[in-house]
Design a protein that fits this description.
By secondary structure, the protein is α/β, with parallel strands linked by helices. It contains 12 helices and 10 strands.
Length: about 425
């Protein structure tokens, strides 16, 4: 009997193959467990990994075993608590652990618990999310390339043989190789003709010239019509092409009516959105706009951390967004998206202005505009105007967030992949 001993050093990820096989096998259970896990964590902690539990019953495999068989007579002991027809309550506790199917004798099996890495957890969380309506061009995580002509090469696939170029090479080679013999042949023929004119055509010198002429003609005829050196093949290389570009506008209401709780919900929504964009798409710009009575473009740190506040004029943010689009992001070259968070409290005469800006100026330039109204017990004036916008354009979507627990369901609803 042969025995093989594997003495290779085990690397850090020696179980990576088995782990990936396990993740594929229990994909459904892991996705369900991951969805349950995110409901109890903060958005800021989304990037860390997570411990996932899978019920033991989902890991069991079917087995064959012998049944009791035959006809059996069983005597069960009586009791002082139940009579015929009573319902028996489920036993409490048990030695099998949580969901482990404990038995009265204390035996059972615990749930299988393992830890997902940050990348694995985010893959499962974002698996069914996408920016909607990418109708212009497909955003690519890998740079796009196209085959472009790049001259000719002396080696290549026979199917790419360039006949005209090869024939030009052959003609040039034959002319170069036969140039010297042709000049010598012309001189020998002129010398022989001169001897014949002088009446010395039968002399020994004339015979030598005739032999030289024959040798030169044979030398010229020996030059091949085409040679492997003459072959030329069309060369094509991968040339990077500009992939489609996308920009996401994040509009945050920081007016006085947006208290810290509302701002906290809005910030968490945008943090989740920003994390989703950077995870899913490589080539995308993000523009942060804060507004109260006036709007201002800010960087990410100021967008989330600044404590500036004031009144509410929502149209100022939409006006600034329109100006930025016209100045930096032409719709012919960019896929434009926007997400707006507000409590909906706005000046009565400004809400119709927002509706007009969206329908007439912004939505024709954008692919998708999402609006979330935060902690508004009753729909505000902005919500009523935006309802008319939603009815007028399929590119507009709106949802309400009442508590922190609503962030994930609303986000997934706004950015769920559409089934073709």
């Amino acid at each position: 009997m042969n025995r093989l001993v594997d003495r290779r050093l085990s690397g850090k990820n020696r179980s990576a193959v088995n782990r990936q096989r396990f993740l594929r096998r229990f994909k459904t259970q892991i996705r369900k467990a991951a969805a349950e896990a995110v409901s109890g964590r903060k958005v800021a902690d989304l990037e860390r990994g997570e411990k996932i539990s899978i019920p033991s019953k989902d890991l069991s495999e079917p087995i064959f075993h012998h049944g009791p068989g035959g006809r059996r007579n069983i005597v069960l002991p009586g009791n002082r608590e139940f009579v015929s027809g009573d319902r028996i309550d489920r036993p409490e506790g048990g030695g099998g652990g949580k969901g482990g199917g404990g038995s009265p004798d204390g035996e059972g099996m615990d749930e299988f618990v393992f830890e997902l890495s940050k990348e694995e957890f985010m893959d499962y969380f974002f698996q069914d999310l996408a920016l909607p309506d990418l109708v212009k061009k497909q955003l690519a995580a890998v740079p796009e390339v196209k085959r472009a002509r790049a001259g000719f090469v002396s080696q290549g696939n026979p199917s790419s043989l360039h006949v005209v170029r090869s024939m030009k090479q052959a003609i040039g080679r034959r002319m170069a190789m036969a140039a010297g013999p042709r000049d010598a042949l012309r001189e020998a023929e002129e010398a022989l003709e001169a001897l014949v004119t002088q009446g010395l055509g039968a002399s020994a010198e004339a015979d030598e010239l005739r032999e030289e002429i024959e040798a030169l003609k044979s030398r010229i005829a020996a030059v091949p019509f085409i040679d492997t050196w003459d072959l030329r093949y069309a060369n094509r290389v991968d040339q990077p092409t500009p992939s489609s570009q996308a920009v996401m506008f994040c509009l945050l209401d920081v007016s006085g009516s947006m208290d810290e709780d509302r701002k906290n919900i809005a910030k968490r929504f945008f943090m989740l959105l920003y994390l989703f964009l950077t995870k899913s798409y490589e080539r995308i710009d993000v523009v942060f706009i804060r507004h109260h009575t006036v709007a201002k473009e800010v960087d990410e740190e100021e967008f989330f951390a600044s404590r500036e506040s004031g009144g509410t004029v929502v149209s100022s943010a939409l006006e600034l967004m329109k100006d930025i689009i016209l100045e930096r992001y032409p719709s012919a070259n960019w896929n434009i998206y926007a997400a707006q968070a507000s409590d909906g409290d706005n000046w009565e005469d400004d809400s119709p202005r927002c509706r007009e800006l969206l329908i007439q100026s912004i939505l024709p330039l954008t692919q998708y505009f999402a609006y979330v109204e935060i902690e508004a017990e009753e729909p505000q004036s902005l919500w009523h105007e935006y309802t008319r916008v939603k009815a007028a354009s399929p590119r507009f979507a709106m949802q309400r967030i009442l508590t922190l627990e609503d962030i994930y369901p609303v986000f997934r609803e706004l950015f769920r992949k559409k089934v073709a």
